[in-house]
Amino acid sequence: MAKILFLGEIGPGQTSLMRLRALERLGHEVRGVHTIEPWIRASWVQRQVQRQLRRGSIVDEINCQALQAAREFHPDLVWAEKQEYLRRQTIEDIRRLGPRLVHFTPDPYFSLDWKRTPLMDEALGGFDVLVYCKMYEQAQYETIGRPLVYMPLGYCDEMHRPLPSDDLRWACAVGFLGGWEPRRERLLHALAAAGADLKIWGGAWDFLRDGRWTPRRQIVLGQLAGADRFHFQRDPLIAAAHQGGEVYADDYARALTGARIGLGFLRTVCEDQHTTRTFEIPACGSMLLADRTEEHREFFKEGKEAVFFESVSELIDKVTFYSESDAERQRIASAGYERCVAGKYAYVYRLREALRKIDLLLGPKFRYP
After folding, report:
1. What is the DSSP string of 107-149?
2. How many domains does the chain have?
3. Distance from CA of residue 211 to its chain's centroid?
């Protein structure tokens, strides 16, 4: 087994924390560094300025924390997640201590300018292996010239499981957990207008309650929208369906379980063909209704383990049909859950396979169960 230093956003409910936990379950000794914490403590203005300049006290602290933890822990492997502000020099300093260096990001990197930084562009070439989950970015990762390992996203089987609740706040015919973007707004508005029993949980939806413009909202919504147009306006239908901001831990599982149909909308600002909710929804016992993509159809058999759509009319038709067809919906939801288990889509299996592939690339070093 290995000593693994885990660098990432390991706060409550974060998928990085779930992957850290999966490494522990595989028998490794893991030490985590919550590299997003210096950003959380800073003011909004400080964050904006230092992200633009790519330097300052926050960036310094992130790099000092990572290097100090490596010196104290003496890891065999450093697993760094989404480290846009880790300097190449810090990576080289950690390398001198002897560990293997691996980087993984669960997000698109090359496709979104606001997630990409010159620091990370330079730093990626300093890792021994790059683990990626976006097949459409493979060619861009290949230009870096480092060994690559593809690892699809997954779910946490400790966290994402059927969790029924007597609290009616979670119950609905169709639910969506996720952030705002223009296409999602249009799709959810259409469902609400069609009379669907809809509940929405997630961030950046609040402007539809008051329709008010602010500079901060303009920046945030502009990033999320990309080239898609949007308007600051009130939408009483979505405002009524919106239950609140992001939910975590057991409440996240309760919200997914409480929605008899779980919506797996992809984003338009990138070419995603699957997300974490692809697996989290069926893992919590809800029927997955998602965008029809090749990857979705590889993970789940269409019409048997999940249901897919392409147009607004097809989305409305399928929500209407499966809202009224309990037996058929429950059959698909159960089959989707079983596919998650049998397909070993949980992080603990994803990471075990990724570590084995890393050993094949670099030579065997650890024992894996």
Report:
1. S-STT-GGG--HHHHHHHTTSSEEEE--GGGHHHHHTTTS-EE
2. 2
3. 28
CA-nearest of 286, 111, 281, 263 to 185 is 263
For the question of whether the overall pTM of this predicted structure is more than 0.70, the answer is yes
Pair 33, 69: CB distance under 8 Å? yes
Tell me: do 219 and 335 sit in the same domain.
Answer: yes
Pull the structure tokens for residue 143. Answer: 């230009």
Same-domain pairing of 264 and 118: no
Q: Residue 300 belongs to a domain with what CATH number? A: 3.40.50.2000
* 8 A C-beta contact, residue 18 and residue 45: no
Residue 289 to residue 353: CA distance in whole angstroms: 28
What pLDDT was estimated at residue 368?
52
Q: Which tokens belong to 269? A: 């600002």
Q: Where is pLDDT greater, at 42 or 295?
A: 295
Q: Are 105 and 82 in contact (CB under 8 A)?
A: yes
Domain that holds residue 177: 168-342
Look at residue 152 and give its three-state secondary structure.
Answer: coil
